[in-house]
Amino acid sequence: MSSAIDTNGPASTRIAAIATLVSLTLAIGGCATTRQSRGYERSGFLGDYSQLREGESGEAQLVYVDPAADWKRYDAIQLDSVTIWRTEDTTDLSTEDRQRLTDYLFAAIHNELSQDYRMVDRPGPGVMRLRVAITDARGAKVVLNTITSVVPQLRLATTLGGAATGVSVFVGKAAIEGEITDSLSGRRLMAAVDTRQGTKALRDGVGKWSDVEAAFDYWSKRLRERLAEVRGA
Which sequence spans correspond to the domains of the chain? Predict the structure, then answer.
């Protein structure tokens, strides 16, 4: 049975330092690109998946938006510490990698949403609660990613190992599940399941988690855009 791994203490004390790391990563490694994967799995983090539908173009793989929600009444967000949901792919992550990944995703989401909302640490009127879990995180093979010359044999190898699943053997992959609820009533307002993976295997100066971090950046920006859409901003 899946279970949550709590890798965070009080996250607010690390926001400034992690935000700087996120900004530097974007500046240095912004060339990393990702695409939506073909398949997905339900980790159990969301509990009830019956409301979610298959996503359309530009949406998460599974998505739910409350059609009756009054989005304009919300001006603040309570962002829970990001957790890693224990799966076959996340069990072997080191403590350092778990901390890095959860900190990075928390900071990326916080940086984006704080531009449009007050970020608070407790429930209240006009406050949405956002909870997110990393349900898959696979780093790229760094040694092969740092090759600078284009070798035909290696280019071929990047497509063979992942042919069945659509995942190249030298790129990273990440999956998340997230849910927004009314912080007082617990009513579900939005939920999503999505998986993304790297697209470029042969890149110079790209770290093990660059593809995963690029996916986190994408999801954070897309969440901000989606919330702006539903409230008519």
Answer: 4-230
